[in-house]
Amino acid sequence: MFSGVENGSVSVDSGHARLHELGYKQELNRDLSVVSNFAFSFSIISVLTGVTTLYNTGLTYGGPVSLAYGWLIAGAFTMIVGLSMSEICSSYPTSGGLYYWSAKLAGPGWAPFASWITGWFNIVGQWAVTTSIDYSLAQLISVIILLSTGGNNGGGYEASKYVVICFHGAILLLHAIINSLPITWLSLFGQVAAAWNLVGVFVLMILIPSVATERASAKFVFTHFNTDNGEGINSKVYIFVLGLLMSQYTLTGYDASAHMTEETKSADKNGPRGIISSIGISVIVGWGYILGITFAVTDISYLLDENNDAGGYAIAEIFYQVFKSRYGTGVGGIICLGVVAVAIFFCGMSSVTSNSRMAYAFSRDGAMPFSSVWHKVNNQEVPINAVWLSALISFCMALTSLGSSVAFQAMVSIATIGLYIAYALPIFFRVTLARKSFIPGPFNLGRYGILVGWIAVLWVATISVLFSLPVSYPITNETLNYTPVAVGCLFILVITSWIFGARHWFRGPITNIDG
């Protein structure tokens, strides 16, 4: 057992030593620096992805006020959740992440159940995140093709939902191939992705308002509240809350830093640094991006109109019109959309990486059907089967879009709520069952740990309720918010499988160091 960091004359990595103390062998290649660890989470949060794909939601529900202030509110609370997660990550740097933490913090009696429910919410939430990222890229590609061939009003090519699902499948295939490469390659891609996201945001937030011939006033950007949503909702508070979804959906996925800890040097310090820096930097640059784009908004109802050139895709229409009004052609706008598309591609790539590490760890502990298959690593120390499984499941989840947009929306909601429930469970156990027994790692919040933890848990409980509210009245089959149905079904499945099967054989995380 490594007790210190020095072992004879060989220096042992502190994360490696801690992993050994927790009872796990070092099977993955520990090669990532703190920058690489940050890069994975930053690329998954990917401001360009979340804001671009859900800008319509923000514009519809509250407009500029929801966008500008909703982002800061969601950002502040997300940082609180991140701080709590970082404190736990510092103590338990394993790629199982959340479900391993739940097992340790819930105590021996509750450990198997706590890790079962956290693990399944985490992994299904992650698969849903990959599904929605890659599907939104497929949609953006179809909008780019539409605009490149003349736009909605100029006889442009409008892709059918079958073409979009083919795009989606092709993107996932590419992501699975890239994720089959050794971690040194992935680390390089991850850093390029983070740089692309960072530079892309700065370029677009300066370029778009600069090129625009008509700009909104600062008064419009910071004080205009759009109540004209066409959804039958008039209460300003209600509208603002629905507008928060864009911000909260964007600010997810930073658990990637925890899932990459077994491949990160000094993970007990660098894992937490990865989580906190990825949230902090995303909140700052994301706010700049939102404001920059909103300064180019002059007519909200036109941007959301399905009859505009981009078919109602607000950000695409903004980019296209800004260049068209100044230069007589929208080509520059299409190129800007290409910059966003590359960022979304990287975002999906990092998401599959995070998925596969979670599936690897979860199956290492025997929680998944055919576990022995999924936790195999190849000669390059890559959990190759878990990579392809994650891509396949994400493709299957997107097939719901062929049935109805409502079913697909339910999938996306699992991405936000399912993941956040998985984030909150270990924090909840940390502030309740493990209040006295928790042994902090090098990064800790000291006496504020409990207070910060409770705020984080209450925020997650609040958004889980808020995002289950109807988004349109009167309520019909088409307008019903299926979030509670989707998350409820997942909950019932997880609990039933526990009662009728898993409780007899699942013992929670299994150590794999013999002796």
Automatic annotation (TrEMBL):
Location(s), subcellular: Membrane
Entry keyword annotation includes Transmembrane helix: yes
TM stretches of this protein: 34-55, 67-86, 98-121, 127-147, 159-178, 184-208, 275-297, 327-348, 386-408, 414-433, 445-469, 481-500
GO cellular component, one term: membrane
Membrane-protein topology: Multi-pass membrane protein
Pfam assignment, any one: AA_permease_2
Keyword Heme in record: no
Subcellular location, principal: membrane
InterPro entries documented for this protein: AA/rel_permease1 (IPR002293), AA_permease (IPR004756)
Keywords: Amino-acid transport, Membrane, Transmembrane, Transmembrane helix, Transport
Stretches assigned to coiled coil: none
GO molecular function: gamma-aminobutyric acid transmembrane transporter activity; L-alanine transmembrane transporter activity; L-glutamate transmembrane transporter activity; L-lysine transmembrane transporter activity
Sequence similarity: Belongs to the amino acid-polyamine-organocation (APC) superfamily. Amino acid/choline transporter (ACT) (TC 2.A.3.4) family.
Protein name (database record): Amino-acid permease BAT1
Organism, as annotated: Quercus rubra
